[in-house]
Amino acid sequence: MNDKSRNEEVQRHYATPRHLVTRGSFQAKYATVSWFGWLIDHMNLQTAMEVLDVGSGPAWIWRSQFDRLPDDLRLSLIDTSQGMIEEALANLATLEKIEVVSAKVADAVTLPHPDETFDAVLLFHVLYHVDDPRSALREARRVLRPGGQVFVSTNALENMSELHTIGAEAFGGSPVDPGAALFSLDDAAQVVGDLFGSVRRFDLSDTMTCTDPKDAVTLLLSMPPGIAAPEAQQRHLAELIRKESDRLQGTLKTTRRNGLIVGTKAP
Known about the structure:
The chain is α/β, with parallel strands linked by helices. The protein is built from 11 helices and 7 strands.
């Protein structure tokens, strides 16, 4: 897929939060560790900090973790989808601890902000949607103040491998997480280390027990390649998931494997 086609695909899939809702609902139902809570645990957010959330989506992390945020957080949002920006603003409208400084439709590789503006830049599960992740991270470094931190989350190649193996049987292709195939946790550690020097890595492993095969089918159809699968492949996937669930007496275990890379800009 060329860069233009990839960008068009991202715009089409993320015009609204629909697919994110599907993935979030699966984790909310089956995960034993709160992803947003885990992220906040590994971030040193401070009162009146200037934060840029790149690829903010509907800003669920801020709404769900509101009680754990410091006062007077100054938040700027960037997303390539106008629909996501509108959803984010609606979700943040009543949160008094947060001042939304700006919310713009823009690209991660051309941030519309001056040098050394922010104390923290967040790139949560976004760099596998970017044509050039290294350029995006250079931009993050540019807009960070000395001593500021970049926070990059993404998936490991083996993330939910049990389900992606079944997906590959239905759709073809490789049985690995589609986002990690483009930009994995190992990739993030390498590039952040190259650009920032100081880097820390935190890994999360969380086994989820799916008790409804339909949930697993819906999840795989909310991401590539299932997101564009013809009906025959969708039916084939549902049959494969049902058979595997029956074989395992009504449960499908899959392990979420992702994490966070933190880089610090030199003073």
